[in-house]
Amino acid sequence: MKPYERLALTGRVALITGGGTGIGKETARLMAARGADLMLAGRRIEPLEQTAEQIIAETGRKVLIRPTNVTIPEEAQALVADTAAAFDRLDILVNNAGKGTHRPLRTMDPGIWDKDLRLNLNAAFYCAQAAYPYLKNSGKGAIVNISSLAGVNGTLGVGAYSAAKAGLHQFTRVAAGEWGPKGIRVNSVAPGMIGTELAKANWTKTGYDAMTASKGFPLRRYGESYELAEVIAFLASDAASYVTGELFVVGGGPQIKGMIDTDEG
Ligand SMILES: NC(=O)c1ccc[n+]([C@@H]2O[C@H](COP(=O)([O-])OP(=O)(O)OC[C@H]3O[C@@H](n4cnc5c(N)ncnc54)[C@H](OP(=O)(O)O)[C@@H]3O)[C@@H](O)[C@H]2O)c1
Q1: Counting atoms of ligand 1 from 1, which one is nearest the CA of 191?
Q2: How many of the other CB atoms lie within 10 Å of CB of 94?
């Protein structure tokens, strides 16, 4: 293999949960552009159909879709089994479906706590466990779990989400340790503030000034979905063949704080 070919995903099959929108959609577009065939899953069929159509037009790859609620173990397991059956293999799993509920801990209903944990932590386990035999057969199996900076620092107002994403980091490490000997790499990516289509629409609706809010970050801006996709696709590829059990924060450096402003000169 030539060095510049290591990012290629030719011949690989990737299952991306939440693949119809945002970070999942941009990851799907990039992986297909690098040669992968795809299964995209989410609850709503419309975004999946639109994204699949766009990617087929852009790349000519095989892109299947499957409406699925990944928080239901049987649905997650059926999604994985159907993907492997449709393509006769599965090489890459991106556990990207996720969302947090805004609620202070004092008034958080236990049902909301459970719901956030099921989506942001349990679903990754359901899909990964079901994918294990296929990823083992792949010989180049890779799982990328999409976490959040909230799981690193903790974010006020999204306690269940923060706890679930932090749990996802330790699930990543244990899976990497247990499945590494079988040739499966497992990593997580923690996005910071990302201007997905949905996020931007929400900012406009609520009047949230994301540009000003991100002025305190070393890179002085929020991120875009494609910037996450680059890291996710790298981790799924042979270019990351010796990387496992790691957490990659992609956030423009907001966790770097100091007492002085060095933005002069
Ligand atoms: N954008 C950010 O600033 C940011 C920051 C940190 C972390 N993240 C993480 O990045 C990941 C992607 O988020 P995004 O920003 O791209 O938001 P998004 O566009 O809302 O993507 C979330 C996706 O998950 C799917 N989904 C939600 N619940 C599901 C369920 N029960 N079963 C199956 N699919 C489900 C959604 O589709 P349906 O609604 O059709 O099911 C949607 O396609 C998430 O894990 C999120 O926590 C994002």
Answers
A1: 6
A2: 30
Catalytic, 161? Answer yes
Lining ligand 1 with CB less than 6 A are: 17-18, 20-24, 41-44, 47, 68-71, 96-99, 119, 146, 148, 191, 193-194, 196, 198-199
Q: From CA 68, how far away is CA 90, in angstroms rounded?
A: 17
38-50 per-position pLDDT tens digit? 999 999 999 999 9
Domains, the chain, in order of start with CATH, read 3-194+224-250 (3.40.50.720)
Q: How far apart are CA 250 and CA 252, in angstroms?
A: 6
Supply the pLDDT for residue 67: 98
Residue-wise pLDDT tens digits, 115-141: 999 999 999 999 999 999 999 999 999
- For residue 119, how far is its CA from the centre of ligand 1 (angstroms)? 9
Ligand 1 atom with the shortest distance to the CA of 149 = 6
- For the chain, first and last CA: distance in Å? 45
- Report how far ligand 1's centroid is from the alpha carbon of 146 (Å): 9
259 Cα to the center of ligand 1, angstroms? 35
